[in-house]
Amino acid sequence: MRSRTLALLFLLTSCAWPLSATALDEGDRAPAFSVPSLFGDGNVELGKYRGKIVYLDFWASWCGPCLKAIPEIEEMRGEFPDDQFQVVAVNLDQKAKKALRFLEKNPIGYPSAADPKGSLPGQFGVETMPTSYLIDRDGVIRYVHKGFSRGDGSRIREEIRMLLKEQKLGKK
Question: What pTM, to 2 d.p., does this model score?
Answer without folding.
Answer: 0.86
